[in-house]
Amino acid sequence: MCFSPAASFGGAAVVAGFGAVSLAEVRNAREAVLGALPAAFAVHEAVEGVVWLGVRRDVGPTALHVAAHAYALFAWALLPLWVPLGVFLVEQRRTRRRILGVMVAAGAAMLLWLAWAAIAYPVDAHAVHHSMIYEMQHRPGSTVAGIYLVLTCGSLLCSSWRPVVILGLVNIVGAAVTVAIKASAFTSLWCAYAALVSIVIVYALRAMRTSDHAEGADDLVEGRGQGPERVGGEGLEHHADQR
Q1: Residue 222 gets which letter from DSSP?
Q2: Distance of alpha carbon 160 from alpha carbon 87, whole angstroms
Q3: What is the number of structural domains in the chain?
Q4: For residues 194 and 178, is the Cβ–Cβ distance under 8 A?
Q5: Domain residues for 223?
Q6: Is 36 exposed, middle or buried (0-12, 13-18, 19+ CB in 10 A)?
Q7: How many CB atoms are closer than 10 A to CB 61?
Q8: pLDDT digit string (tens) for 200-243?
Q9: Cβ–Cβ under 8 Å, residues 183 and 4
């Protein structure tokens, strides 16, 4: 998180509390990936706290090196797979699952490429005007950046669960505002923002428990019933699938 080590560690503590609640809401393996995201963001913010300490020379260069690479690996390589996979696993509508399946495959490819780049090349972390800047020698271009946003934000919009769609919308707004205000610190600022708004996942998991999700996956796939937390139009998807 921007500002200081205290802000990063404090933000991590807050998000960790919601992360624990989110994990407690998980009822089956399909929900585990999405439900674990707030806790993962909490760890991510704590790692940036170590990066801040390293930049200020309060910890050694080895700790800074490891923390900077770990931060970059999660932000650049893991998130593009984690987010669409989490949405895919809890989605029951066939058409939406097909779209999300393509995103998962793209996220896996991006994971392999960006993980290699983050490991093989140096990751430089330095503070500028109370913001942490991460730079990699092998920098992805604007096309890759666009695909990244589609996978991390657009996949949320493909969900039939309204709280998940809302999470996608607020993340897109956050990304746009971050680019407009301070594009150079996008990785740090947007990840901090995404970590805080990931608490919406708690509401999403609870919505799955209180709507027609509880009636069984078969009813959902076949289009029998639509709970108050569902995005409309799934009946049309079902008929299209049958044809």
Answers
A1: T
A2: 9
A3: 1
A4: no
A5: 5-242
A6: middle
A7: 9
A8: 888 888 887 776 444 444 444 444 445 546 665 554 444 444 44
A9: no
